[in-house]
């Protein structure tokens, strides 16, 4: 069985999901971030570790009431246990760098459902906080919208998950951790269904 290090040209797939206070990464706040590390042998990829932070809005962030209503997040609820953008990114980046090294990969690649959105908020928070050593490829991503559209004819995460035979709990949806875990399961199922030896023969 081939190792993960060779499956994606030395890139380790890491599923990321963010919850935010709007659509503009420069003006709106990062409120939650979750990362799910993918591991296992080629053909048997699986989620192996999850990391999750609630995040305090940066000073001056625009908090769109419609976005907050959609996610159900109260940014200033004291029981959230929220940390600064800097602490959240340091925690995520440290865990991902450790996983990249353990898998003998050279860098991580962000996997997401509408991955460009998640990457844009990570990069904006990175710039604001001054955190260094971002382990992710700066612009390349794997997007499960496209993968699920190809595999199942569905682009909405909930519908794609159900089409893939996965469970879906609407009560937990729009939590960064839940959405990242479901996206990871979806990504692994799609990738595992492709036999590279057959495709390349």
CATH class identity: Alpha Beta
- Record field, number of beta strands: 5
Largest sheet: 5 strands, mixed
In the CATH hierarchy, the third-tier topology is known as: Nucleotidyltransferase, domain 5
Spatial order of the strands forming the largest sheet: 3-2-1-4-5
| CATH superfamily membership | Ribonuclease H-like superfamily/Ribonuclease H
Report the uncertain regions. Answer: none
The CATH architecture comes to 2-Layer Sandwich
Rg is 17 Å
Count of discrete domains:
1
Shape: globular
* Secondary-structure element string: EEEHHEHEHHHH
Question: How helical, in percent, are the residues?
Answer: 25-40%
Beta-strand percentage?
15-25%
Distance between the termini: 17 Å
Total DSSP helices? 7
Tell me about this structure.
The protein is an alpha/beta fold and 201 residues long. The protein has a single domain, classed as Nucleotidyltransferase, domain 5 (2-Layer Sandwich). Helix content is 39%, strand content 21%. The chain contains seven helices and five strands. The protein has helices at residues 65-71, 85-102, 115-129, 144-152, 157-163, 176-192, 196-200; strands at residues 11-20, 30-39, 46-54, 107-112, 136-143. Strands 3-2-1-4-5 form a five-stranded mixed beta sheet, sandwiched between helices. Helix 4 (144-152) packs across helix 6 (176-192). The two termini are 17 Å apart. The mean pLDDT is 95.
How is this structure best summarized?
The chain contains 7 helices and 5 strands, in the order βββααβαβαααα. The protein has 201 residues and is of the alpha/beta class. The protein has a 5-stranded mixed beta sheet, sandwiched between helices.
């Amino acid at each position: 069985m081939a190792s993960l290090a060779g499956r994606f040209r030395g890139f380790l797939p890491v599923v990321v999901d963010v919850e935010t206070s709007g659509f503009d990464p420069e003006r709106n706040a990062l409120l939650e971030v979750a990362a799910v590390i993918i591991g296992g042998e080629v053909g048997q990829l699986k989620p192996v570790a999850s990391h999750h932070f609630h995040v305090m809005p940066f000073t001056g962030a625009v908090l769109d009431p419609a976005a907050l209503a959609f996610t159900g997040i109260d940014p200033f609820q004291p029981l959230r246990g929220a940390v600064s953008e800097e602490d959240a990114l340091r925690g995520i980046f440290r865990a991902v760098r450790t996983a990249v090294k353990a898998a003998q990969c050279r860098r991580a690649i962000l996997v997401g459902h509408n991955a460009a959105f998640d990457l844009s908020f990570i990069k904006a928070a990175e710039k604001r906080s001054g955190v260094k050593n971002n382990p992710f490829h700066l612009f390349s991503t794997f997007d499960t919208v496209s993968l699920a559209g190809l595999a199942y004819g569905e682009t909405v995460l909930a519908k794609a998950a159900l089409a893939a035979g996965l469970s879906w709990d609407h009560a937990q949806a729009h939590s960064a951790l839940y959405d990242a875990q479901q996206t990871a399961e979806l990504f692994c199922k799609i990738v595992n269904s492709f036999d590279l030896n057959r495709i390349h023969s």
